[in-house]
Specification:
Blueprint lengths: L19 H25 L27 E4 L6 E7 L4 H16 L4 E7 L8 H12 L4 H10 L1 H4 L7 H10 L4 H9 L1 H16 L7 E4 L2 E3 L4 H13 L1
Parallel strand pairs: 2-3
Antiparallel strand pairs: 1-3, 2-4, 4-5
Length: 239
């Protein structure tokens, strides 16, 4: 009598990795998370519940600029035909939802589209200014993009608490291999926060009321879908 074939292994094996069933399940969960994230993003575009309030920090409407010479480029086009600017808050859930799409657009249109990130920390987010200062301190060591990514990748771990998260951000800086003495000096230097406030002042003068808010070639845009976002970019590139 032939020996029965062994039943398929339906449990994860440390040598073989996850089973096919579990890989499919994780893939479906990731797809659902992406769809939900994009829905949050487009429904909240420029309208984060923690509305922009506060005192103008020195940039009047007459001198406000959508992009400044020292604005941080998330990507720089080799044949620039359009510029996409995002006013963002690292503690904003809608900004987190937008992050993968912005990265995708940056890659997809990278040859012709320059992507610029500008700080716009909102008062309703207790660690948003601290996060912005940490990213700016990293930018001073040419690690803007890396710290920008780290903030979003870990947002759910540090956000929405009144506990000071600056030690957490310092840990990120150390992980990125920054000169920690220079990082600490930058964090303590009022000029670092002043640099953040220049971005926010420009945003307030440009009627940015929440995050994320996008400008394409100097004009505020509010696309309702990813397809519309792409269409706007393609039109700007073609002009």
């Amino acid at each position: 009598m032939p020996t029965p074939a062994p039943a398929p292994n339906t449990t994860p094996d440390t040598k073989q990795g996850l089973s096919l069933q579990n890989r499919i399940t994780l893939g479906l969960l990731a797809a659902v998370a992406l769809v939900v994230g994009l829905a949050i993003f487009f429904n909240s575009l420029g309208n984060d519940p923690s509305q922009a309030e506060g005192t103008d920090t020195g940039t009047g409407a007459g001198t406000a600029e959508v992009v400044r010479e020292d604005s941080h480029r998330l990507s720089q086009a080799s044949d620039e035909k359009a510029i996409l600017v995002e006013f963002l808050d690292f503690e904003c859930e809608a900004c987190l939802a937008a992050y993968p799409l912005v990265e995708e657009l940056s890659e997809e249109y990278g040859e012709n589209l320059t992507v610029v990130s500008r700080y716009f920390p909102l008062p309703g987010h207790p660690n948003s200014e601290t996060a912005a200062a940490a990213v700016e301190a990293a930018a001073q060591q040419d690690k803007f993009k890396e710290m920008h990514a780290r903030m979003y990748e870990t947002q759910t771990e540090w956000s929405h608490t009144n506990e000071d998260r600056s030690p957490v951000f310092r840990g990120y800086a150390k992980d990125l291999g920054l000169d920690m003495a220079a990082y600490d000096t930058a964090i303590a230097d009022p000029a670092t926060m002043e640099r953040v406030n220049i971005d926010k002042s420009d945003g307030m003068a440009l009627n940015v009321e929440g995050t994320p808010t996008f400008f394409l070639d100097g004009e505020k845009i509010q696309p309702a879908t990813a397809e519309e976002f792409r269409s706007l970019i393609e039109t700007a590139i073609a002009d």
